[in-house]
Fold these 4 entries.
Entry 1:
Amino acid sequence: MTAPDHQSAPTHRDTEQVRRVQESYGRWARLYDWFARATAGLGGVRAGCLSALDIGPGDTIIEFGCGPGVNLPALRDRVGPSGEIVAVDITRPMLERARALVVRRGWQNVSFVQADATTPPVASADAVLATFVTSLFPDPYAVVRGWSEIADRVVLANFAPRGNWAANAALWAFTQLSPPLFDMSARDSLDQLDRRTAASRRALEDCMETVETTRYVFGTVSVNAGHREL
């Protein structure tokens, strides 16, 4: 049964940064929705995440930074009607688009929570998924450690500027669309992305028994999967 929507106040990020994220994503919600759906299967990233999650019927999964819900159909296919999906995002316009998708599909086992992912709104789950979210956190190591306490499988898709020069140029251009969103300067934007991705992986290494990394899209995207033996 779908749980009611909730709101929880952010506690681990300063309110100014939270405001920037909400305004940036809220302003571009419609464009981001279109872009995310148009590129949903690009480079095999989503398929790689689903494979790494290793979820099945009846499982409960939390998606932090669910955005307009582009991953929800694939997640629902895996957990089935007996599973549970908790979709978390800090931006209400994004959640409204994700909720509209769920209503159209008639799914009864998807819950929406407007919250800061640095403060998980649930106590436990079978798995956690976050795609292109950890680069928004000043301290991704602490955030991912927190996620690792509530699930035995945590899968992160991150920007990883280690590809060829053309791919890195495209990634740098993307960060410049809204520098306040990533809380970075033009001078070291790629270095910062690299540092934050590395920090999120270190958190998995310190909390999980195994961590596997697979690279996609000419090396600019990495999927880091941490598993704890059941």
Entry 2:
Amino acid sequence: MQKAIVLKNIVKKYKLYNGTKERLLDLITPKKYGEDFYALSNVSLEVEKGETLGFIGINGSGKSTLSNIIAGIVPESSGYVEVNGKTSLIAVSAGLKETLTGRDNIELKCLMLGFSKAEIKKMEPEIIEYSELGKFIDQPVKSYSSGMKSRLGFAITININPDILIIDEALSVGDKAFAEKCLEEMKEFRKEGKTMIFVSHSLGQMKKFCDKIVWLEYGMVKEFGRAEEVLPMYENFIKKWKKMSKKEKGDYKSSMMQKHREHVVQ
């Protein structure tokens, strides 16, 4: 089968500074300031064309960072990224300009994706209708709820018909009826042989849609395999995680972050 996505040894490193002064000193002096933080460490995976891949993991595990790298929004610090096809990321307010209206955001996002003004004019009524935003379409996006932003993002994406659809927690906000509508649209995408990346805390949705699962834990791949194999392991972990004290969770995180430093490919 043709590979839709190939990632090899992906590392994403950020610098954490104690204030603006330290950040400036790091830029203008030979001495190094700040602390290295690895959001992703040596992430490798392959996604076949037409597969639906789920990203799971507790908060802070790098799911959104990895989604943004695949979507081309955030660059990797090192490693190899191959994406075969047009991608579109749906996340709350992803790619939306807060000061512009919903209608202006439709035009801006579609222009950035290479559509002509004539094509956008033709697509716009369908996007607005799908979003169910009504008169709010001509209000600034900064006045939207998170659910409304998600609606607009999903409506634009569905109408531009990408090859690879990346959904990052976009169905966890807003009303249930719209979420169901989006899930039905995702089923159609699957029938068309589209590739999907699905980020969600809903294990029920994961079981329903995903062929394979990547379990990320503080930026590293803990497990990668068939959904029916990985999800039960993750469910058992979550049960134990919820019973941990705050100190136990902190100790666990510290031990995992130490593994970051030991396993990063320089």
Entry 3:
Amino acid sequence: MDLVIKAADLRAAGVPAYVIDLKCRPGGPWQRILPGVLLLSASPPTRAQRLRAALAYAGPKAVVTGVDALHAHGLRSLSPPPRVHLLQPATARRACPEHVLLERTTRPPRVVLRSGLPLADPARAALDAARHDPDPLRQHHLLATAIRSGLCTVTTLTEELAAGSRRGTATARAALRLLYPLLR
């Protein structure tokens, strides 16, 4: 159990709002980790709890992408960024809290369910992670690691690049051009 719940779900289950407020006071047994989302523990949230909280905050059509999605697909060698990266429909208007990167998209990814989490497919997740990393060497390493692990191929990454927006993809395109000759 991840101990993450929406405050609205607690109220719907009969927990009065004043009890929620009381338990979430400083030094209390619960904490608010995102607007309207609680952690039923006083301990610092784990990455998995932050991920579940971000999904609860963003709503039912949100999808995990980037490094967190790659981790859930089995690629554990990459260190997670400070913010959880989610995709949401272009029509959604949720604000971005401090620990969440909510990216609106008109082209939702193919969703893969793992451990109850809606994940972007590996190629989309790898490119989304690369697009948001300012370091070209880390982008190259990320894409090369995703390919070497067998999660995706140069072809699937190239097809994903061709289908999506060109914004922020110049370095990823250059990295794939460098990787392609090495993988033949």
Entry 4:
Amino acid sequence: MDVLVTGAYGRVGTAIIDHLHEKDEYEFTYLNRSDRPEDHPYGGYDTIVADVSDREAIQSAFEGQDAVIHLAGYPRTDATWGEALENNVIGMYNTLEAVREAEVEQFIFGSTNHVVGMYEVDNAPDIYYPDSDLMIDHTAPRRPDSYYGTSKSFGEDLGRYYTENYASPTQFYSLRIASIRHAEYDHPYGDAERGVDQGEWERGSEEYQEMVARMKAMWQSRRDFTHQVECCLADDEVEYDVFYGVSDNDRRWFDLEHAREVIGYEPQDNGDEWDSPPER
């Protein structure tokens, strides 16, 4: 299966390289706005260097592909309107136009929990702890918390428009990713430990403990994410659907039953099974 990954060298894209690149089932093409040197951990891969905001520059990468995993874009909630517009709105339109022209069948969209982020804003920090009873599923009204979340909500709608009005893509999967981290911090203590490393707080402080509580709810391990991607790639039934990207955390507030039932997503990891960070 020929698969194009946009934004391949970002935090989420590298999970695909780490877990799926060597599998015989797939032939990956990586598109990124910049390459990596040979001595970089992700150097040495064949890379198409192009920006999704440049329609003409990206088209050739889509030719002959069976699926696209679209992860390129501005990735944080601090996006200004201009950053969200160029990278996430125009970039999404250009990517879907390239898919339509190249007649690519499957489109896996790296959406975000921030499409429904106001539920967290309204309920934090209580929502981070096991006695919270909030559960958000794919039918919940969208409540974006930022220009970033709003731009991803737009991407979901645009994907549905293309799927229902054009011959390609024939399938669209919106993965509302919760919290995926780089390999070094791929555990529910990751954000808290990164804050220690950056001098933002001390281990065991109130800030540290709250970051742990949040990640025990929000964490999607890199292996669970790539398993979810494989579930989409193997599926031949979905026309358009939305799934939450989160591990099987006891205190999560995002529904997993829909992803289990529709695409067979069975995450292996659970943030509450950790009671300390890994030894370094």
